[in-house]
Amino acid sequence: MGTELEARGVDTRLPRWSATALLDAPEEVAAVHASYARAGASVHTTNTFRARERTLGQAWQRAASDAVQIARRSVPSTHRIAGSIAPLEDCYRPDLSPPDCRKEHRSLAQLLAGEGCDLLLVETFAHVGEAWVAIEEAALTGLPTWASFTPGPRGELMSPDAVYRGAVGAVERGASVVMVNCISGDKAIDYLPSLAASGAAQYGVYANAGCIDDAIGWQADHAIGAQRYTQWATAWMEAGATLLGGCCGTGPRHIEALSQHLKSYARAEE
Q1: With the C-alpha atoms ordered 171, 175, 178, 182, is the resulting torsion angle positive or negative?
Q2: What is the mean pLDDT of each run of 10 residues along the chain (270 residues)?
Q3: CATH code 3.20.20.330 for 2-269
Q4: Which helix H or strand E contains 93, and what residues bound it?
């Protein structure tokens, strides 16, 4: 969502990042959701990654509510809406994680559940302790809870052992799915054994289009990048991943290529 909005000329400056679009360009948020639905995605993440009081002030609740409703009306009714719950501070700075994070995660989890999300996605956490708190609050809503850790774009924030520890704790706290995201697609495979050993019912990957200087996505959604992404996805599936998507730098072209690849892969397995 964030890099697609940026490619469309929407203001994504920090700290609001993609949340600014909920206030200034909701039609662009809707257009991004619709483009992913046409590309073959069936689970759509709400644009609530930064829709918090600490970034939007008193407008946060209305913005978060709008994010759910925009997603819902922009995609087919049979598709699932995943309410995004992200770190309170910078996802690449786990050292900034606040010790008193429970209230804010509870508020967003309850709002997303009340607005009709199909599941809650606790995503892009490098701080295991904060992730566990968010998972607990998400699970308390009664909705299916998915959890995703970020090892960092180049794997610098979490080792496979750290992801294993985080994933096991996530399952113990109510997550039915564990994943890694916001890591370069060529490095994601290193974390699949950790997810497989966690005891989760399912596990998966939604990676970045390489790193920003790899020129296989990001500002230019080149076909070669989509092709390479599907090659990585084959390795993820062979390692047991059953939930696949895209994170930073991926766009509808990546998802369309992935969707077509999954269909071909399924036929070959029959």
Answers
A1: negative
A2: 92 94 98 98 98 97 98 98 98 96 98 98 98 98 98 96 98 98 96 98 93 47 79 95 95 94 80
A3: yes
A4: none
Q: How far apart are CA 179 and CA 85, in angstroms?
A: 14
The pair of structure tokens assigned to 148 is 């995703």
178 membership: H or E segment, kind and range: strand 177-184
Domain boundaries, the chain: 2-269
Q: Do 125 and 178 form a contact (C-beta atoms < 8 A)?
A: no
DSSP state of 198: T
H-run or E-run covering 14? none
pTM (2 d.p.): 0.94
Angstrom distance (rounded) from CA 196 to CA 179: 10
SS3 245: strand
What is the structure's pLDDT at 4? 92
Q: Please give the single-letter amino acid code of residue 155.
A: G
d(CA 218, CA 232): 17
Structure tokens at 61: 């609740």
The distance of Cα 129 from the centroid of its chain, to the nearest Å, equals 18
Q: Is residue 21 within a helix (H) or strand (E), and if so which, with residue range?
A: helix 20-24
The β-bridge relationship of strands 243-246 and 119-125 is: unpaired
CB 196, CB 168: distance < 8 Å: no
DSSP per-residue codes, 111-147: HHHHTT-SEEEEEEE--HHHHHHHHHHHHHTTS-EEE
Identify residue 15 by its one-letter amino acid code.
Answer: P
Beta carbons of 144 and 119 less than 8 angstroms apart: yes
